[in-house]
Design a protein that fits this description.
The complex is a heterodimer of chains A (450) and B (485). Chain A has 450 residues and is α+β, with helices and mostly antiparallel strands. Chain A folds into two domains: 217 residues, 2-Layer Sandwich (PmbA/TldD fold); 220 residues, no CATH class. Chain A contains ten helices and 18 strands. In chain A, a hairpin with a 2-residue loop joins strand 9 and strand 10. In chain A, helix 4 runs parallel beside helix 5. The termini of chain A are far apart. Chain B has ten helices and 25 strands. In chain B, the strands form five sheets. In chain B, strands 3, 4, 5, 6, 7, 8 and 9 form a seven-stranded mixed beta sheet that branches. In chain B, strands 11, 12, 13, 16, 22, 23 and 24 form a seven-stranded mixed beta sheet that branches. Chain B has a five-stranded mixed beta barrel with strand order 10-17-18-20-25. The chains are: A alpha+beta (450), B alpha+beta (485). Strand 2 of chain A pairs parallel with strand 5 of chain B.
Chain lengths: 450, 485
């Protein structure tokens, strides 16, 4: 680790007068095991490393990266970044982050047990999971059963005085299932998935992953396309997490300063129902994407974005904050060494409510339990707010789960959906995503079918 | 890449064991591959790439940043029976390659073997594309200038335009593939890409327009493409949608404009015809070769050799020359798409569809350029013979569940059809259908074929560039996911 910080430090030592330099250095590895019909289908084991260098001078920014840490290559990257700088537009707000004095919340992001976990045991986990998922229901086959882990260490140094380094690792297992019913022209196949995440393989709940995968696939068998109507939807936790991901695009400080957020002029206003409190908290160790520092090396922190339905705050990195006349909220994102920091939520969650999914459903007279959404990238426009996705799930009638439905879409607008939230479930689930999930009830959504 | 000139095509002169474009010697490859079989595996492969890229982004009137990238490394795959081991390295020296080979071989333990001697035979280069101007030889200032032109054109199109973001990207990727079956092949793929997105603001809130163009040819493409027109088109879309009404909801006829609906076939059947899904029984098209799966109007082709198209390659990422594959002919399913592993299992030839995102990824079955050939109908008749429905002028992305066949795709510019005429613009939304049903429900097919915009196809976490195309067509019933009754 120290050696990565050393590499980053040596880059910024080469800064010339009037120049700001940021060096981000990273090294990481991954293991992926896929099991199919009791045998290893593939086993991937690899390491990679690289450096990204950003140079700011007289309001212009240049960037370059390379997937290597060879000295000669690093020198070339710095030269490229300097060369690229001359083509940027002068921007009065362009600058690297300055240390802001916010203390880093110490977290244990590294697990030795995982780092030392034997390869054969990883393979066994994937085999066990396949067996569990395939064995419980004669209609169910397993498409793939995976074990995956990854580790990364990184360091960032800037001429503005930021020096941060750290390492983390994590792992998950996942299984995807196929459930078959009928034959000939009536043959039907539905799919399901389940997973479990952990800092260590000992955290896994294989039974739950298998049960989820089997249930998700089998409960859709016999699904038909219902007629169109307006309904109250109950989103499964996984679906809610995806929905929050879309909402977060509207709270992005960069979108706000560039006029692309539909909430840009609404700070302090009631943008959601009173039961909605939305928090981004990467310091919560339960969050899969928990982190101690953000992509610019500032302390990650808890930010309340919507409180009791009122819009409280947008998330910023140092650039968007400077333009907005505020301070960074520690929300710089970085996808690796090949890009510059963006802005985004790091670990979102709604504050959970009081009741579980069953209780929420019991209050719905005419509705739809949404098990999956399809096409979030194609039918949702976070700038206009138009929301339309494919869906599959179970009808709800008189407070009871009913017939499975497929080939439907659910549609509304993001603005209305936030206002139409009826209740937030208590069943918080920490998913391998940037947002946690829980059941969420939203009224007056158009379900399109036949 | 500095050393060894501009191409890896030297590889065909195998007898002198030359340096492959200055990167890996042939005798090193032979030793690494031979060693990879030491644990008893039956197949090993080295995939090496050296990629340089430049991108530039303009947003909010400013050229925010020019980025240069260098990605270089090799992925080594070792197969023993049904088990594949894979490792990658950014060290293209013999030591790095041998280490990665050992890691991959350990992962794919066979029944014990011993080092085998491998003799590689270079194949003649297959280069469907011609590159006149290597983007690396073009001044960055000229690339940035394209962005300014788009920004100016979009902003001057109408006062409602409030924001413009534009991007330029080029890359040159040299690829080398060698395997224990003696394959030694290379490729040199240049890509040039432009994108522009526009936000317009009006009484009913903001709307967006988006255009993109991408080719596997050099910088000369910008002599032929009207860059300003691309930007004006995005601005027109955004402004048009300011007056859009909520989309209808429910099943109705849908007409899809030429060169925009390729994504429909990509999702409705393309993925379902990939042999990996077929072999696991995870596709609605499994076991259906020779059967009618689409309206007889439909002939579907996947062709990795179309000059200049976004999904075009000389070789696939397993060293197999790309080719033209007819998948559906006059409505009858003729074949699936194949990579090395799936073809080997079936004892049949590969189809040039083994692709991967980079040297850090395992290859799998992927599409290249997927399109439907012309049909008999005059496009004007298709609209005029539709009393009520939706006309989609531009589609967004899509996705499919290959096992159930249910797929969605987004419409980013659409209109109502009333009494055989295109009328009011509609707000964005998704459409949903079931692949086999929709293929049968294509009841009119135009004679105005066009290729569409460049796409990135995602599968199992990997993105690869793909192209698509089709003539104007009508699906007699698709579910439109709007909010209006």
């Amino acid at each position: 680790m120290t050696d990565l910080q050393g590499i980053a430090d040596r880059v910024i030592e080469r800064a010339q007068p009037g120049e700001q330099i940021e060096a981000f250095v990273m090294r990481g590895g991954e293991t992926e095991v896929r099991v199919y019909e009791g045998a290893v289908e593939h086993f991937v084991s690899a390491q990679s490393e690289g450096v990204g260098i950003r140079v700011v001078r007289e309001g212009r920014t240049g960037f370059a990266y390379a997937g290597t840490l060879e000295e000669a290559a690093i020198a070339e990257v710095l030269a490229e970044a300097r060369d690229n700088l001359q083509f940027g537009t002068v921007d009065e707000w362009a600058a690297l982050a300055d240390p802001d004095g916010v203390a880093v919340t110490e977290q244990s992001l590294w697990n030795d047990e995982l780092a030392d976990y034997p390869t054969d045991d990883k393979i066994d986990l994937a085999k066990q999971l396949e067996k569990l998922a395939a064995g419980s229901d004669p209609r169910v086959r397993v498409d793939e059963s995976d074990y995956a882990d990854a580790w990364a260490e990184s360091a960032v140094s800037t001429t503005t005085g930021i020096r941060q380094s750290g390492r983390e690792n994590g792992c998950y297992v996942s299984v995807s299932t196929l459930a078959d019913e009928g034959s000939g022209d009536d043959a039907e196949t539905q799919t399901g998935f389940g997973f479990s995440v952990g800092r260590s393989p000992h955290d896994f709940d294989l039974d739950k992953a298998a049960t989820d995968a089997v249930e998700r696939a089998t409960r859709l068998l016999g699904a038909t396309q219902p007629p169109s109507k307006r309904v109250t939807v109950v989103l499964d936790p996984f679906v809610t997490a995806q929905f929050l991901g879309v909402v977060s695009a509207t709270l992005n400080g960069e979108a706000v300063v560039k006029g692309r957020s539909l909430f840009r002029d609404r700070l302090g206003e009631q943008v959601a129902a009173g039961c909605v409190t939305l928090v981004d908290d990467p310091t919560n160790p339960l969050a899969y994407t928990a982190t101690d520092v953000d992509g610019e090396g500032l302390a990650a922190r808890r930010n309340v974005l919507i409180e009791g339905g009122r819009l409280q705050r947008f998330v910023h990195n140092s650039y968007s904050a400077r333009r907005a006349g505020t301070a960074s909220t520690g929300n710089a994102t970085r996808g690796g060494f090949a890009g510059t920091p963006g802005v985004g939520c790091l670990a979102l969650s709604l504050v959970p409510g009081e009741r579980d999914q069953q209780a929420l459903i019991a209050d719905v007279d005419d509705g739809l339990l949404v098990q999956s959404m399809q096409g979030l990238h194609s039918g949702v426009n976070p700038i206009s707010g138009d929301f339309s996705t494919g869906a599959a799930g179970l009808l709800i009638a008189g407070g009871e789960q009913g017939a499975p439905v497929r080939e439907i879409t659910i549609a509304s607008t993001l603005q209305r959906m936030l206002q139409d939230v009826v209740e937030v479930g208590s069943d918080i689930d920490w998913l391998p995503m940037r947002a946690a999930g829980m059941s969420l009830v939203i009224a007056d959504v158009m379900m399109s079918g036949r | 890449m500095g050393v060894g000139g501009r191409s890896w095509s030297l590889v065909s002169v195998a007898s002198h064991s030359p340096r492959l474009g200055g990167v890996i010697d042939q005798d090193v490859l032979e030793r690494v591959l031979g060693g990879a079989l030491a644990t008893g595996a039956d197949f090993a492969e080295v995939y090496a790439e050296d990629k340089r890229s430049t991108s530039a982004a303009l947003d909010d009137g400013r050229v925010e940043q020019v980025t240069s990238g260098r990605d270089r490394g090799a992925g080594i795959r070792v197969v023993a029976g049904d088990t594949t081991g894979f490792a990658y390295t950014s060290d293209l020296g013999e030591h790095g390659l041998s280490q990665a080979a050992a890691a991959a071989a350990a992962a794919a333990r066979g029944g014990g073997g011993g080092v085998r001697t491998i003799a590689l035979t270079g194949s003649p280069a297959h280069r469907p594309n011609t590159v006149e101007i290597d983007p690396d030889d073009v001044a960055k200032a000229r690339k940035v200038e394209l962005l300014r032109r788009m920004d100016d054109a979009a902003r001057s199109y109408g006062g409602q335009v409030v924001q413009v973001s534009a991007g330029y990207g080029d890359s040159r990727k040299r690829v080398l593939v060698a395997n224990t079956e003696g394959v030694l092949a290379d490729d040199d793929v240049v890509r040039t890409l432009l994108r522009v997105s526009v936000v317009a603001d009006g009484d009913t809130g903001m709307q967006t327009g988006y255009q993109t163009m991408g080719h596997t040819i050099g910088f000369e493409v910008f002599d032929a493409v009207d860059v300003e027109e691309l930007a004006r088109e995005a601005a027109r879309q955004a402004i048009t949608k300011l007056g859009a009404r909520p989309s209808p909801s429910g099943a109705m006829p849908v007409v899809i404009a030429r060169g925009t609906g390729g994504v429909l076939f990509h999702e409705a059947c393309g993925h379902g015809l990939e042999a990996d899904h077929i072999q696991k029984g995870a596709s609605v098209y499994a076991g259906r070769v020779g059967e009618r799966v689409a309206n007889p109007l439909v002939t579907l082709v996947d062709d990795g050799t179309m000059p200049g198209e976004w999904g075009t390659l000389g070789i696939d990422d397993e060293g197999r020359p790309t080719q033209r594959n007819v998948l559906i002919e006059d409505g009858v399913l003729t074949d699936y798409m194949w990579d090395y592993l799936r073809a080997r299992k079936e004892g049949r030839p590969q189809s040039g569809n083994g692709r991967r995102q980079s040297y850090q990824h395992l290859p799998m079955v992927r599409m290249t350029n997927t399109f439907v050939l012309d049909g008999p109908d005059d496009p004007a008749d298709i609209v005029s013979s539709t009393p009520k429905g939706v006309y989609v002028a531009k589609l967004g992305g899509g996705s499919v569940n290959t096992a159930s066949g249910d797929f969605v795709f987004g419409m980013t510019e659409a209109y109502l059809i009333e009494n055989g005429e295109i009328t009011e613009p509609l707000r964005d939304g998704n459409l949903i259908g079931n692949g086999p049903k929709v293929l049968n429900d294509i009841d009119m097919l135009g004679n105005d074929f066009a290729m569409g915009s460049p796409g990135t196809c995602g599968k199992d976490g990997q993105g690869v560039p793909v192209g698509d195309g089709q003539p104007t067509l009508r699906v007699k019933s698709l579910t439109v996911g709007g909010t209006a009754a």
